Amino acid sequence: MARLTHHHMAIEEMGTMDMVAVMETDGEMEEGDTLKDRGVPGVPFMPDLNRVAERNNEILKHVFRGKIKGCFLIDIKDQVMKELGFNNFMKYYDFCWSEERMIMGIGEAAEYDICRMIVGTHRAHSIFLSDDAKRKHERSRRYKQQLVSETIEKIKLRFYGSVYFRKNVLFQGEEFLYYPLPYELFAMLSKMGQMLMDVQSICGWQLYYGVIYNGISALYLLEGNLLGTAYPLCRGAIEMYLKLLILNTQTDYYDQYETFRMFEVEHSCHRTYPEKFNAMFEKRVCQESKVRSDYLHFGWVDFIDEYHKTVRKLPYSVYGIISFVKAKNEDRILELDLLENFYRSCHAYTHGSIQTAKYPLLHYFEISIMLYYVVRGTFLLMCKEKGVETLVDGNDVVSMLDRDFEVMYRQYQSRSTELFEKC
Asked: Sign of torsion, CA 306 312 316 317?
């Protein structure tokens, strides 16, 4: 019976296998065994690395069958590991042995993780392509190098990305979280969470936290193929981002926002409106608005300069905030129009009839677009407020995000039921 010892060996030939456990054997030798083949008590057993590598590759081909051509996958995987190099490989994948890691089953599966990145990136680039176009990609030296480079980018982000992902999805389907845009969004949100933990005195801490919380939650649902349930979270993230765009123009506004936020907390606990809130409601700027709950959520806008001069319709609502932000940010009209349209449509996904749409790819597009604008914008606001570079682990994730969004948005614009049916 073979058993693991505390010795592990890193193999410098990166194309062969991740790690090899040095094993001890006990028991009787069988006919045909040699000391090298089987080992004896106290004598290390060394497996045939080439045979192990070939077996690993066959397993990887089997795991990802139907999603990518097997030989193409292994070719890209081997090139990624070669270009990454031994030192970087050991930097981004932790093979330190411990009994805790073994018992908890949280050891690294580096080749599997890298293959998931390759498959996600390749399938994202292949959306709506004909079979002929896909075959051209697989034969193109330029495309192969692009796929290798983008996979290495993702590996360099993995401490903010795939290190947190499940090895098995909740429901079978596409691994959308390994597609370039969701992967980069997750890394950006992870970095924001780290930044927020470092300094909790940042203005608008609760709003930043809300965007991070909703964004990561939506991406986890995307990962688990619970796609329709991500929309209410995206809707909440949009609302918090819009509040940040207003409140960040003058930090004094946060004091009033915090006052109303505490009114909401008190109301949620006691189910009655606080006395101070009731007094402020009676003196509200827009007397035409009669709904007390609307004022509870948005009464702080009464203290925003020129707000009521700009917003004439539904001032105590998200739509009032959108109108005000549009008026003050004419250079962002396209972004704000998109967010407004998605915000309006998000509520439909709370209805059972469209909880799971016919085309999961449509969910991927819509969720990615919403989170791109919200998460990217929030990340830039936070970095500016903290006076730090917009990098994640030294990587220019904003540029990566913009590049991959441009590709994805072109695909989204060309969408049709015919194309969805072919995917």
From this structure: negative
Res. 276: pLDDT tops 90: yes
| Residue 6 DSSP one-character state | E
* 3-state SS record for 340-353: HHHHHHHHHHHCHH
For residue 204, the SS3 value is coil
Mean pLDDT (whole number) for 151-172: 86
Neighbours of 269 (CB within 10 A): 8
pLDDT at residue number 106 = 60
Q: Residue 179 in contact with residue 208, Cβ under 8 Å?
A: no
114 φ, ψ (degrees, to nearest 5) = -65, -40
The predicted structure's pLDDT at residue 46:
57
Burial pattern 230-248, b for ≥16 Cβ within 10 A else e, equals: bbbbbbbbbbbbbbbbbbb
Q: 279-288, pLDDT tens digit by residue?
A: 999 999 999 9
Query: What is residue 17's predicted lDDT score, i.e. its pLDDT?
Result: 46
CA distance 367 to 318: 19
Q: Helix or strand or coil: residue 395?
A: strand
